[in-house]
Amino acid sequence: KAGVTQTPRYLIKTRGQQVTLSCSPISGHRSVSWYQQTPGQGLQFLFEYFSETQRNKGNFPGRFSGRQFSNSRSEMNVSTLELGDSALYLCASSLGTPITDTQYFGPGTRLTVL
Amino acid sequence: AQRVTQPEKLLSVFKGAPVELKCNYSYSGSPELFWYVQYSRQRLQLLLRHISRESIKGFTADLNKGETSFHLKKPFAQEEDSAMYYCALSGAGSYQLTFGKGTKLSVIP
After folding, report:
1. B4-27 pLDDT tens trace
2. Shortest distance, CA B97 to any CA of chain A (angstroms)
């Protein structure tokens, strides 16, 4: 089975721009979670989707949004980028929930905001 | 609010020595607890979870509700255990994982 894929792998943007990141889960997985990883804050939960519904949202401003499509692929969007949004964004998928099922992580998208 | 604390950023042990990676949590209810591992140049992956009561690669973790801890242990460290280890928590009925900041384990040959 192919693993979780994320595109693009690297991205450079300037302040004020917006960005969309994409995640393709493992075939058959319906839960997709997103995380932000920075050296200072570590891994922080952004949101989790199941069957196109957001079930949980982390403590991030409204500039961070996401969605999931009927094929379970997911996108996250960050509007009005700030320097502090520079981070590695990780996506993870699981069959039903990241709690009872094994969660598989993608390689991440490295976002740099200049 | 839920919080996970891993007090050691870096832990160095000799090959064959016992390993204990500490994890303390703050949560008012009954949490689900996990250990994730990231080997060099590999993706983050699940090592074990409390609900499964499993032992993976010789590692075990015991939930101590009195001390609110979920320490990861292995009796004899191997060089291939060198990696970054993250403890994570989920609250009851939640699909959100809260991670600690991680401990880098270095096993000295």
Report:
1. 999 999 999 999 999 999 999 999
2. 6
